[in-house]
Amino acid sequence: MTFIFLVLSLTLTGCWDRQELNDQAIVLGWGMDLVEKGKYLATANLVLPLASESGGQQGGEQGGRSSFMTESAYGRNNRDAEQNMQRKLSRVLFPGHRRNIFIGEKLAEHGVFSIMDEYSRSPMVRPRANMFVVKGGTAQEVMSLAYQLETNPAIAMQKIQEKSGAPISRSLLDFYIMTNGTGCGIMPAITILSPEVKTDKKSKNDSPPQTTLGLYGAAIFNSGLRLAGYLNYDEYWVRLWLADKLAFRNFTALVNAADADPSGGNAADAVSGATKGQTVSVNVDSFHRQITPMFQGDLPRFRITLEGKGYIEENNSPLDLSKPANVQKVETRMNQYVEQQVERVVAKVQKDFKCDILELGETLHHRHPYRWKKLAADWETLFPEIELDIAVKLDITGTGTTSKSLLPTRDGGEK
């Protein structure tokens, strides 16, 4: 036995391929831009270890020094650009912690097929990483912009998305699932936002609004994996709700004198702008959706029921919410408003994009697999003409910390 162990000790060399932490350049974000056909610009956000070791952080800086560095290189694909980038770095690129991947708009319009293969093939890429399309800009621009609340812009965009009601980030995996299902794909879209009002600094300690990163909505990809268009921020939530992935959302609807009628007024009044300033805001934090496919002959139609529960957070309308009948009127108005918004976005998806990002085909596949086999090949043509019956049921479960307003009168309401 002693002889055997001595022989084994000569053949087992231990961690011969280890990579020390202080020899690694940790990548948190990766971006790709199309320069010309067949030539790409890769950008990486790298952690600066000296900044990370010091305590305290503010505005993406520590001790007057940025906590991340941005490096870039040209290449014919991801791996070629990474190799060219490595020749400028004293540490080995380590993409195992890469959380977010950014795609410039020009590359998205050209098509993302040419860069997506590496993300599924390489064991160093997280399947649950997040993908972002940069609307109106490049990946390098957003990755070079310091974000004040976080040490790294790559981390910032993931948190912004989650704080907007979207699920925990995994859009890379979702993109692969969708494109191998109905053929279409969707990714979150971001943009660079200038301050609404520009204010000059009057002293060195002032902190006026600055150019920053923001969530635009979602980028839609057709069956050729090319950018088909966008859903903006006020449309993105509809798709999340229909996919049963919406966590929370605040809805604000106009409420006017017509709501004193038992009917609750006409649906068109809710978005007419005729009663500017007379609004009610409802915070909905419980969402559910039910999609039921039905058949008329060989073609399907869908009944979609969207449900939610929430409470009133602000009331600037003439209604006294201490009366249950008035709460019911707000609920009626809110359902009219939200249903109208949902129908508008669904019509945009069907007629403008002609792409099933609503995952109706996937629902049909699960419920009626044999029928789906007959429809799958023509689904891209059939989807724009599919009939949808949409119903919204929002339940108001409370009026906040008070029912009747503490203010003595309501403008145009009951005294």
Averaged pLDDT, please?
A: 85
Would you count the extended β strands for me?
15
Tell me the Rg in angstroms. Answer: 26 Å
What portion of the residues fall into strands of 2 or more residues?
25-35%
Mind describing the biggest β-sheet? 9 strands, mixed
Helix content: 25-40%
- Shape call: globular
Q: Report the structural category.
A: alpha/beta
The number of distinct helices, counting runs of at least 4 residues, comes to 13
Unreliable residue runs: 51-59, 258-265, 267-275
Give the helices and strands as they follow along the chain.
HEEHEEEHEEHHEHHHEEEHEEEHHHHE
First-last Cα distance: 97 Å
Task: Describe the protein.
It is built from 13 helices and 15 strands. A hairpin with a 2-residue loop joins strand 1 (24-36) and strand 2 (39-47). With 415 residues, the chain is an alpha/beta fold. The N and C termini lie far apart (97 Å). It has helices spanning 2-11, 49-53, 78-86, 105-110, 113-121, 139-144, 153-162, 171-179, 233-242, 324-353, 360-367, 369-375, 379-382, and strands at residues 24-36, 39-47, 61-62, 65-66, 68-75, 92-94, 100-104, 130-134, 185-193, 212-221, 227-232, 249-254, 279-296, 299-315, 387-398. 30% of the residues lie in helices and 30% in strands. The radius of gyration is 26 Å and the shape is globular.
